[in-house]
């Protein structure tokens, strides 16, 4: 499609009823594409040679030329009035822009923007001729060569922007035709020189010459208000003929000094000069400037200022000498600056504030002295600043603040971060009393280790930052003193203890109803936290074990890491396991602990006396006690003790005397309220007491295996005891007669005491029975030896399992146990279960699917194979397990094996709390008739190892393998 068709489309677009135009019916005409509502009210027509975009609401047309050839302008648009016309990347014809837009039918353009245009030669008057209606002209990214006639065709210009046009020279009379020009921007060009009378007679108010190559400047303009000469190379400046100058920006120049009273003939309101080497400020530099309000002389390497620098300039309100090299200011420097409201002296080298220096500044509201070398704030340095609202003293070397130093009745923000403050205790040398209006205090990155009771007077405080200090202990008293605070930041402190022992009392004393917006909010983080009973009350708070009113009074966001070297999060620590050394526990009439390791557990208010593994021959007779201890746990495990003393009247509830050399036990001398007793692995032969009805009535957990229990007529009392307490004996199935595998609980008193039979008859009978049995067994053994594998599999396939012992079934199992768990519980498995079972003197061989499964094999196959090749299946039952896709399948395969073989092979470890509603029907049914082991149980490892104790005697011998049927392959017998 040619340009003529393009113009016809534009005529349809912009002629007659412009506001009702839509693209319907003309999309994709030849090589033009019309797009409706491109950006809100914008519409766009894209053609081969150019793109036209216009906004119906704002009356703007933008034409972007897409071709390097000259664009043809041949048709009109119906004579419409457009406020703003934007050309981009087009070639300007020497017939002039006015001729072009007239041809297009566009009238009365008021704002014209030319971006990245192409001009043949200099900007002659023909290019911009007959543009009498244009008031704003913006030419950018176009290489311009100006002439004295360039702007003769734009006499009504009030705003002229000529940025980034590579302009080097400014003809002396180029702007003379612009008799009403007010704003001129010549920034970001390559101008090296400006004629002093260039703007004479022009009512220019705003002039930007920033980012050029000017080295000096002397202008004659009676109307200029704003002058920006930033980022040049100016070494000398004369503004004496700029009588109406209000604002000047001198940033990034190389001025070293200026004449005295440089701006005396101006009406200067604001001066900005930063990033230079203005090291020598002249006398009376800014004196007697009645209209001066803002002075910003920053980053100029100023080392000294004259005392009379701003004298007589009585209306200054903002004054900054930040980022210089000042050591001090003359005492009378602010003599006439009584209206000053903001003073910024930050990033200097000031060490002291003379008490007379700031005396005139009674109206000062903001004072920034941060990043200096101030060591002390004395009583008189700032005492005259009665209207101060913001005080920044960050990043100094302040160690001491005297008592009256912070007497600012209107102060709202106080910043003291990054100093060397170690103590804020209210005393004769310091007080917070005067800060009753303060809302924000920043004391971060100091050396403070306690909160002062004086905080209670700060009734308006809503934010305090105490992060990165030296707090090791935080008490409820500290929080109380921070009255109704919205947020307290205590992050990155070496916190060890958070004592909330009186929190419930304090919270209940608060007035009701509780106001959510007054709730104290505290942020805590530390990697030094002590994870023992000293933080038990805080653990109760974290685990929501306190009354609801407490959480209306206090909210804590925390990230506390135990100082155990394992990066354990305190939140994950079991609250029941929190104990501490007996010496730390403070209580009335507490006895001392000798020989053993003694601790206190606040969860159940119990005392734990651990005397295990200490080579004791005699059991301790003196047991720890205290008035407020509920009971005692005594652990004497793994010693060489032969006899127990009389513990009958001691408050011991749990007694572990396993793995010792006890040869006798007097049940009547055991503690009356004993609930748990461990006697396994001793030399006990019998229980001698005949009447045990009235003792040990609280006992609910007893272990007795691996002793030398006799099974003759002297064992009557032992057998009666076992029968009476059978439901309490955890290892009942392992208590056997000495030198025999007979289980004591299967014997009766009559069986062990029956009369002897006739010896001869017994002898004959035995001989005949042995002879007959030998012949039968020999025959059966021959048959069995030749067909052993086939017989077992035939019996197994016909559900006849009672003839097959567990040892027989398991003799060729590859693993002792298959671990079935969710990948989300991998930490428990790899950090605890695997090393706990595969290590030690009697290690078990585990099937771990991360380690032992074949890569690429089908998962169901892997599960079936792992269960078949393992003597037991250990299931880590957790909420993660129940949500897993494969874990329930692993349970079903193991459960199916149980049912088929009539042998219990599943061991369930209950990990974390699970409610009954979380379980599926199979697990619920299984757990209703089978026991489980709970992670965290103090006897966990003994119970788990006991459940895995079956180990075939022929385990290490070479033997023929029984082929286990694969779930997807047929059975193959050899």
From TrEMBL:
It is found in: Membrane. The keyword Hydrolase does not apply. One of its GO terms (biological process) is signal transduction. SMART domains: LRR_BAC, LRR_SD22, LRR_TYP, TIR. Keywords: Glycoprotein, Leucine-rich repeat, Membrane, Receptor, Repeat, Signal, Transmembrane, Transmembrane helix. It is a single-pass membrane protein. This is TIR domain-containing protein. It comes from Acyrthosiphon pisum. The lineage of its organism: Eukaryota, Metazoa, Ecdysozoa, Arthropoda, Hexapoda.
